[in-house]
């Protein structure tokens, strides 16, 4: 099971709660104790925009901009902003019990420049959970797969190639 950010939390939660479905877990930049998202509750932009430029003036998060698209109603996102806000709210909290559950091998990938997972927290996660390998990516942020796609691929491929 592989997941990034919210998907990373979902991945280790699935492994904890349904261990028979999982052989190994790859978690990309997802903490065990999730603070409120820095942008939580701040979505004030409209759902549709007359141009891509207008959209970019309201939303400067490159990760969210990847889902921008144009149709007959103008420019918008492939997600519902209200649901994004709800998801961020529900993700907030202490997930240590799920992180520490189970004995699956885990690859924890951490971008050293991440604003979502502090290096000290990533190291604590690896220290506290047996069968966890931490790989840190200097110069990468929250989206390691974008910031260092080759390093990401090497880390994941080598981890998955190990006998289980």
Topology:
Blueprint: E1 2-4, H1 6-17, E2 25-28, E3 33-34, H2 52-58, H3 62-65, E4 68-71, E5 74-77, H4 81-91, E6 93-94, H5 96-100, E7 106-111, H6 119-128, E8 132-137, H7 144-147, H8 149-161
Task: Describe it.
This protein is of the alpha/beta class and 164 residues long. The protein has two domains: 102 residues, Alpha/Beta hydrolase fold, catalytic domain (Rossmann fold); 56 residues, no CATH class. Helices cover 40% and strands 19% of the residues. It contains eight helices and eight strands, in the order βαββααββαβαβαβαα. The protein has a four-stranded parallel sheet, sandwiched between helices. Strands 3-6 form a two-stranded antiparallel ribbon. The protein has a two-stranded antiparallel sheet with strand order 4-5. The longest helix is centred in the last third of the chain and has 13 residues. The radius of gyration is 17 Å and the shape is elongated. The two termini are 14 Å apart. The model has no long low-confidence stretch (mean pLDDT 91).
